[in-house]
Amino acid sequence: MVEVFKTNVQASEQADELISLLQQAFPGNKINFDLDDCDKVLRIEGRNFVSCNVVTVLKERGFMCNVLE
To answer: At the topology level of CATH, where does 2-67 sit?
Structure first.
């Protein structure tokens, strides 16, 4: 399963920190940001994650995060 999220993450340092947190919360998934995209896309590929929990992780750290449809 692949899920794509729109975020407001701006800096690569922020993205790296969030990737580390997400990998701890959802191990075994491929996780990356595309900060060059206008939607500052977060992409997660794998089987063991729940989209609403991903949104919660980012929002708890002060970032906007919504599933892109």
So the answer is: Alpha-Beta Plaits (3.30.70)
